[in-house]
Amino acid sequence: MAKSLDPELLGILVCPKTHAALIQVGDWLYSTDSADRRKYPIRDGIPIMLIDESVEVSEEEFQRATTDDNQAY
User: Fold this and answer.
1) Fewer CB within a 10 Å sphere, N or C end of the chain?
2) Is residue 36 part of a domain?
3) What pLDDT, on a 0 to 100 scale, did the predictor assign at position 73?
4) CA of 41: how far to CAs of 17, 49, in Å?
């Protein structure tokens, strides 16, 4: 399993496109904006917060990722 980011860092990071809060799921940071549904990679413990590096996910993946059971803290 991926290492969780520092809670303080996660608390200040936002989606660069929508400015929505982020949640960590494995090696990805998911935007909590349900209209945009983007995820950003974490590589070697470093969040890659570039829109060009993000991936738009399906509504189903977004729902799975944003449930409490899947969030890594």
Assistant:
1) N
2) yes
3) 44
4) 15, 8
Q: Are 17 and 54 in contact (CB under 8 A)?
A: yes
1 falls within a domain:
no
What pTM was computed for the model? 0.88
Q: Which amino acid is at 57?
A: V
Domain assignment of residue 66, yes or no: yes
Contact 24, 4 (CB under 8 A): yes
pLDDT in tens, 21-65: 999 999 999 999 999 999 999 999 999 999 999 999 999 999 999
The domain in which residue 62 lies consists of 7-70
CATH number at residue 56: 2.20.25.10
